Amino acid sequence: MRIPVGADIPQEKLTHYLLLPKARNDKSKFLAQAGFTQEHPDALRLAIVSLTQSTETVEDGNNEYGVFYRIEGTLQGINGRNLAVIIIWIRWDVDNSFHFVTLKPQREPRT
To answer: pLDDT tens-digit profile of 94-108?
Structure first.
């Protein structure tokens, strides 16, 4: 299964969560390695959409709001550097619409 075209990625998730430096759970430094910054949030949106449209999802649990889906892959950086990431989406039970939840670094498996 793939996330449908037009799935919701709120601008605030990009500008006030992923690209905003934070004391805890900061993702902005990770994303900056690939050239994604507050000045160009649409570049990050396009990279998320590109990976999402080209990658199959895996069901990853559920809660009272809906079903979560996980995508693992490579986010194409705007500066030529690529990042291994996990992207989480939710399909809301109330209307079956898909919404972006988060993006995080994909960690190397432990040996």
So the answer is: 999 999 999 999 986
